[in-house]
């Protein structure tokens, strides 16, 4: 059987799942149920070319996703692939036989160690991958959040990382509780930085008033551009609260 190679390509706030296939032409399509974009890549076409093609189709993906009804959205796919995206960059993956399922870095690659291959136990691999993404995102948040909290004069009382389909993050002004979408671990880190500032600013202003945006842009001048590039939610049509 033909060995098919898959990877994820970051396109703005989207992740396109690309797959090498015996096809004649590049073909981009959207799963009509989940809104997930898929790209079929002919074997002769390089990943570099496929990536620039996918990136040139960003407007098309935006428009196609906006036609999918809100109630049909599902959380993003966290399956194990031959290449996986961490903070907007694609990394090769490999498998090691081991007793306890775990995902870790080794020499610039992502390793899944477990008693069975990711293909033989996809749910186990996904759980390990989600733990890994949580760790990566928590490390970045621990690095950036204290600085911005100090700049804004606020304190985050609790931080949680969750799979959410319609929000990048949320904040509760009264309790100081923040939630971040795990999906931020797959997008460029500048987006996580923006969502950190956005949610911390909600500890100052609960709404999205001009005063709120003034607070946001005071500490992160590029916030409005980042907000536009990121989009409102991992799935289309959601809102950032
Ligand atoms: Zn908000």
Structure at a glance:
This protein is α/β, with parallel strands linked by helices and about 240 residues long.
What's the helix and strand layout?
Elements: E1 6-11, E2 14-21, E3 27-30, E4 37-42, H1 47-56, H2 58-66, E5 83-86, E6 89-97, E7 102-106, E8 109-114, H3 122-152, E9 158-162, E10 169-172, E11 177-181, H4 189-201, H5 210-219, H6 223-230
The structure holds zinc ion.
Domain YgjP-like metallopeptidase: 24-230
Pfam family, one: YgjP-like
Protein name: YgjP-like metallopeptidase domain-containing protein
Structure write-up:
By secondary structure, the protein is an alpha/beta fold. Among the domains are: about 1-70, no CATH class; about 135-230, Zincin-like (2-Layer Sandwich), CATH 3.30.2010. Helices cover about 35% and strands about 25% of the residues. It has six helices and eleven strands. The chain has a four-stranded mixed β-sheet, covered by helices on one side. Strands 5-6-8-7 form a four-stranded mixed β-sheet. Strand 1 (about 5-10) and strand 2 (about 15-20) form a beta hairpin. Helix 4 (about 190-200) crosses helix 6 (about 225-230). It is globular and about 55 Å long. It starts with 5 loop residues before the first strand and ends in an 11-residue tail after the last helix. Residues about 70-75 and about 235-240 have low confidence and may be disordered. It binds zinc ion (ZN). Zinc ion (ZN) binds near residues 198, 202, 208 and 241.
């Amino acid at each position: 059987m033909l060995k098919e190679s898959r990877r994820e390509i970051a396109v703005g706030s989207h992740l396109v799942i690309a797959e090498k296939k015996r096809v004649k032409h590049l073909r981009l399509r959207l799963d009509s149920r989940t809104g997930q974009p898929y790209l079929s890549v002919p074997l002769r076409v390089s990943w570099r070319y496929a990536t620039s093609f996918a990136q040139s189709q960003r407007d098309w993906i935006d428009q196609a996703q906006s036609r999918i009804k809100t109630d049909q959205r599902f959380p993003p796919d966290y399956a194990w692939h031959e290449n996986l995206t961490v903070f907007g960059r694609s990394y090769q993956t490999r498998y090691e036989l081991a007793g306890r399922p775990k995902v870790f870095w080794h020499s610039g690659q992502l390793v899944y160690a477990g008693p069975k291959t990711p293909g033989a136990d996809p749910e186990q691999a996904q759980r390990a991958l989600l733990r890994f993404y949580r760790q990566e995102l928590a490390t970045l948040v621990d690095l950036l959040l204290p600085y911005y909290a100090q700049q804004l004069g606020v304190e985050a009382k609790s931080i949680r990382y969750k799979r959410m389909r319609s929000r990048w993050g949320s904040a509760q002004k009264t309790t100081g509780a923040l939630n971040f979408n795990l999906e931020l671990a797959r997008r460029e880190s500048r987006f996580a930085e923006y969502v950190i500032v956005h949610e911390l600013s909600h500890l100052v202003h609960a709404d999205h008033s001009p005063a709120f945006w003034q607070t946001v842009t005071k500490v992160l001048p590029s916030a409005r551009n980042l907000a536009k590039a990121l989009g409102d939610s991992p799935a289309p049509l959601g809102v950032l609260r």
